[in-house]
Amino acid sequence: MLRSLIDLAPIYSKVLPISKGLGAIATSPETPPKPAGTLSKPEIRSSLWASTVDGIFASVFSGVTGGVLLTNFLLELGASSIEIGLLSSIPMLVNFLQPVGAYIADRTTSRHWYTLSIFSASRLLWLVLIVSIGFFSWHSGASHALVQQTLLMILLTHILGALGSPSWVSWMAALVPHRLRGRYFGLRNSAANFTHLLCVPLFGFLVASWHGGTIQGYGVALSLAVVAGIISLCFQFVMADVNPQVPTQWEKGRSKADATPEKGSLKTLGRDRNFLIFLLYWGGWMFAVNLSAPFFNLYLLQDLHLDVRWVTIYSSLTAGANLLMLLIWGKLADRIGNRPLLVLVGAMVAIAPLLWILTGRDSISIWCWLPALNLLGGATWAAIDLCGNNIQMEISPTQGSSIYFAIAAAISGLGGAIGTTAGGFFVEFAHSGGLPALFALSAGVRLLALVPLFFIQEPKSRPLNRLFA
């Protein structure tokens, strides 16, 4: 459900050994990266265009290596509710390694080569799972062994991804001017979600209709996704490189207006009360959301016994609503700030799980209620994902922000992993209503998680009490 900036960036990564990797990163380019402060407007424009195309192909990759297609693949193999919970908790839990990735990345001299060396190898790791699926299909291997191999692959790729994501976010923060962030990321995410809208149903029909069965069909879809993932990385060669040792032109301008333009570090973060409150909100929100979010597809596939083709169509409705609303939310965020939208739209997201309890397998639910819920989810999550990422950029320091992004990801990962794991155990062992009871519990916890937002100070954000004045 959560489709953040990192989600559409190169997600899965492989880090170079520290002793050799940093040297390779520093010397790989034929010419050193230009200081970001000297980048021209055409270079910025071409970089943002390339990043958008990168996001489009990355959306194809992430649509197959996560979400409903991967969940259905594991369910076809006989995965339990706990294993479905692990599918979602592993990517969040390994975010604890993001501070390590930020530490390494901030000591290199090239965002591009650090990012490329990590993410290209990581995406190729999915070829191992493709080989395993082929062996299973042709030699009738043990299904549970393939479940374990899939979870192991998810663990490895996301460990590597956690080491590279802070560098990617910092690279984008350096390239996108402050005043354009809402509109640009709205446009980028819209393009990616439009691709998701088209591709996921096609892959869903491919998997469901493949003559060799759904498991073999997923292997074919995964092969195509890896190709798309590698193509997306090729467009990073068009993006202007950034040297993290040199302040960008946007950071220089912001530093002049900043009363305390300190470089980000663990020490300054510990004294930054505003960012600490944000961490409390972000971690609590991720716990509350992921208490139930990974289990909506499980509810459709297992409890309602819907065909995977129906579920992929619903997923596309979510992507379509997300696509239509992103540009609107982006412009609105630039006008009134990110915090007001997080509060107002967050309240709508909080009560959404209660509405799922009213669904069933009847015609009204299948044709009206479930499509409406997915449209609502896509529209509201567009604001949460966009503003959640942008507010981090707004309240973090002008330099050394990678450590701030990494700590935020680590805290959110911890909260999300605990929430997903708790939700999995609740469904597996609690005899108190199953998934509907979990949805109700999640709604209450989501409302509580919004409270810290009222105490966060965002520059140039409109106060909540004057929002409708």
TrEMBL record:
Protein keywords: Membrane, Transmembrane, Transmembrane helix
Entry's Gene Ontology cellular component terms: plasma membrane
Domain Major facilitator superfamily (MFS) profile per the UniProt entry, residue ranges: 47-461
Membrane topology: Multi-pass membrane protein
The species this protein was found in: Desertifilum tharense IPPAS B-1220
Domain of life: Bacteria
UniProt lineage: Bacteria, Bacillati, Cyanobacteriota, Cyanophyceae, Desertifilales
Localization in the cell: Cell membrane
A Pfam family assignment: MFS_1
Primary residence: membrane
Positions in coiled-coil regions: none
Name used for this protein in its record: MFS transporter
Entries under SUPFAM superfamilies matching the protein: MFS general substrate transporter
